[in-house]
Design a protein that fits this description.
InterPro entries: NADH-UbQ_OxRdtase_51kDa_CS, NADH-UbQ_OxRdtase_suF, Nuo51_FMN-bd, Nuo51_FMN-bd_sf, Nuop51_4Fe4S-bd, Nuop51_4Fe4S-bd_sf
Number of domains: 3
Strand order of the largest sheet: 3-2-1-4
Domain NADH-ubiquinone oxidoreductase 51kDa subunit iron-sulphur binding: 335-380
Protein name: NADH-quinone oxidoreductase subunit F
CATH superfamily of the largest domain: NADH-ubiquinone oxidoreductase 51kDa subunit
Cofactor: FMN; [4Fe-4S] cluster
CATH class of the largest domain: Alpha Beta
Radius of gyration: 22 Å
Shape: globular
Family: Belongs to the complex I 51 kDa subunit family.
Number of strands: 8
Largest sheet: 4 strands, parallel
Distance between the termini: 37 Å
CATH architecture of the largest domain: 3-Layer(aba) Sandwich
């Protein structure tokens, strides 16, 4: 792989990730060195803004703009760093998504370098990696890399002879999908129940322990060393016809080559599915897919030419989300697939608000009845009402709206399959899921 075209993944080694010495030899920590020695925090912020980097965790919010909401760092008073925090959201629990795991296990020093740059920019001297509890191998490798970074004075006091200091901690989560929501993550990090907070105030102003806090996704952060080394124009030109930069796309389901690929942002769905994932397995046809993990709307074979960037996927009627395709073939039941997803979301609801706490189990109950051939026409109306009941603006956070996205779009695109379950009194796919 070429470092200039595959910046995030060209150093990934899942069998034996690079130690500090080898990471140095591949240009590691040059981005952090450049940030600390050649630029002020405000100058690094300008570079990130110019790069047009957007968050890779799902929302796609401009990273530089998000950082700019943090109250100004007083460069003449290093003590002001004590009142700010940086948190890496590595709580990757979105079904169908495993891109961050690749980076965490395959090149942990890249993330550490990235967090040094980000923390320096926002003026924080404490940072946390909030890691999914089941990522045991990633935890071991991050701990090893952290020890190396401290020993080499990339962490701690007076980093590389500068006036800047940073302590970076690994926090392994106790679990729950809701911890991926940034304010629930902050509550969990404080030792509280992982319920999302009401906003405003936003974490950039009042986050961890009531202090200004930036929460960024693993993939988002890992772009920073390369932007600092190669410049914002290089990053923009990686995908000249789309959002800036590269993106790690994934695909899973009954396809020939499930996996992950770093491609220019805006690669089409068809390119990811057919060229890189090898297309459908023999004897199967594409029926539909979720383009960005389990909490996105279904798209159809007619959408294969759609670029996988934020605006294009939105115009097609879904969300880019995490960029992980979940593929549905023509031999598996869409009703059973949606039921499987809703069971997950119902289990993972924090229970804080009524629409999510009661709505997701209700949807599971109805879908179970339909899948077992015991549904009625009225159940379709009930599901449509539930989709409205749990939609954006009616819940405490985005979990319930995300849960109903595959349901709502399945009712739109696969209505015939729902009706077959009801009219025939059984699942026409014989419970293939």
């Amino acid at each position: 792989m070429n470092a200039l075209t595959h910046p995030l993944t060209h150093l990934v080694n899942l069998q034996s990730p690079l130690n500090l010495k080898d990471y140095y030899q591949q240009g590691g920590y040059l981005g952090a060195e450049k940030a600390l020695k050649a630029y002020s925090p405000s100058q690094v912020l300008d570079i990130v803004k110019k790069s047009q980097l957007k968050g890779r965790g799902g929302a796609g919010f401009p990273t530089g703009m998000k950082w700019s909401f943090v109250p100004d760092y007083d460069e003449s008073d290093p003590r002001s760093q004590e009142n700010k925090y940086l948190v890496c959201n590595a709580d990757e629990m979105e079904p169908g998504t495993f891109k961050d795991r690749l980076l965490l296990e395959g090149v942990p020093h890249q993330l550490i370098e990235a967090m040094i740059i980000a923390a320096y920019t926002i003026g924080a001297n404490k940072a946390y990696i909030f890691l999914r509890g089941e990522y045991h191998l990633a935890a071991q490798r991050i701990e090893t890399a952290l020890k190396e970074a401290y020993q080499a004075n990339w962490l701690g006091k007076n980093i590389q002879g500068s006036d800047y200091q940073l302590d970076l901690y690994l926090h392994t989560s106790a679990g729950r999908y809701i911890c991926g929501e940034e304010t629930a993550l902050i509550n969990a990090l404080e030792g509280k129940r992982a319920n999302p907070r009401a906003k405003p105030p936003f974490p950039q102003v009042a986050g961890l322990f009531g202090k200004p806090t930036i929460v960024n996704n693993v993939e988002t952060l890992c772009n920073l060393p390369h932007i600092l080394k190669n410049g914002p124009e290089w990053f923009i030109n990686l995908a000249p016809n789309s959002d800036a930069g590269s993106k790690i796309y994934g695909a899973c389901g009954r396809i020939k080559n499930p996996g992950l690929w770093e491609l220019p942002m805006g690669a089409t769905i068809g390119e990811v599915l057919n060229k890189h994932a090898g297309g459908m397995q023999e004897g199967l046809k594409l029926k539909g897919l979720l383009p960005g993990g389990a909490s996105t709307d279904f798209l159809l074979p007619e959408h294969l030419d759609t670029p996988m960037d934020y605006d294009s996927i939105a115009k097609a009627g879904s969300r880019l989300g995490t960029g992980g395709l979940i593929v549905l073939d023509d031999k598996n039941c869409p009703v059973a697939m949606v039921l499987n997803l809703l069971q997950f979301f119902a289990q993972e609801s924090c229970g804080w608000c009524t629409p999510c706490r009661d709505g997701t189990p209700w949807a599971v109950e109805i879908l179970t009845r339909i899948e077992q051939g015991k549904g009625t026409i009225d159940d379709i109306d009930s599901l449509l009402k539930l989709c409205d009941f749990m939609w954006i603006g009616k819940t405490h956070c985005a979990l319930a709206p995300g849960a109903v996205e595959p349901l709502k779009s399945a009712l739109k695109y696969f209505n015939d399959e729902f009706m077959q379950h009801i009219e025939q009194g059984c699942c026409p796919y014989h419970g293939a899921y």
